[in-house]
């Protein structure tokens, strides 16, 4: 399935004007910018770009049509040529892409440009034109964009497959024509956006993501939305579960009693003394799998932390009687993995009610997104296969997942949604496509919002976790 979702382009076709070259906005000309623009969009100029008028004939016609002197038109375009500046950053990036592809990537230029104007560009020697496998001009072809015949002419000459070809132009109408022939089209606006998109089109997203994870080995710390680094165990455990690589994470071991604290180091933005919590501890026990004696002792202690409704609480501290359905799900996962889910019947019933009535849509006390609840719930079902709970909750969960397909979300939310859908057998290529488009130039996906502080609501995310889950999501649909 992923083969049709991930383009892996092997051919790039770039426009020249306002993409590879830019005009200086402060160039003085004998005629007004409005008149210059009008000439450039006139039928006369189109004939000139297709080689059907000489330079002199074009300037004389343009002068007559715009009530000016041909000498002024000639001088205006001479000044314009002199003001042209190469987009050196984009050109360098293209060269890097070719080098990194080890000969697999072909790059072409395709432009509406007259022969005299193109010769003037080449004479400037400001660009190493050898980075292009060929340059197609409207003057040489006798046709121009956005006419489909020009695109077909170029495609036939280079022998490219439209499905693996990307066309980059600053004009939407030109990109539309390319797309109508099956090419991937990119309307060029900003260099940074173009580089990100081109990386996604040319590179392997899984390989790029893994390279990012390796480059930050042991340093995938979480960050708050305000930019503070948070050394914590929870997302490190999830990163370990997603990758299976212990050396990739920065994880503090369990206490002698088997419990684990959310914070790896000194608590940040909260009380100086922060208690162990059932959420992180449950995650640690299902992932690290300590001795059964340790697990049993912790399970027995967890049963002491329930409210008057019999619902499991968040902390090993009765003075912090916090209740969160995602925490309940993770504790249930631990209990079910040891065939003790029935001991938390009230908690189990409440989790089902939260799902049934969509109480999670605005997030929970410690988790901002609906995807956190749904994602961890699919994880619970994997651990509760032999439990009756799994059989009656599954159809409702599948419906709720279908309802979320296409909903807004950051990279982490999309990755969790795709994974959750895949686990439940729900097809979700819509969100996978969106997820692929969010990969950054360095190979990572944005930090997302895995959890948050209960009191302040400050969100915590992690680039490494988002990237690892994005890779997992792509692989699950491969």
UniProtKB/TrEMBL annotation:
Q: Kindly list the organism's lineage.
A: Eukaryota, Fungi, Dikarya, Basidiomycota, Agaricomycotina
Organism of origin is Phlebiopsis gigantea (strain 11061_1 CR5-6) (White-rot fungus)
| A Gene Ontology molecular function term of the record | phosphatase activity
Q: Which NCBIfam families match?
A: HAD-SF-IA-v3
Matches recorded under InterPro entries: HAD-like_sf, HAD-SF_hydro_IA, HAD_sf, PGP-like_dom2
Q: What is this protein called?
A: HAD-like protein
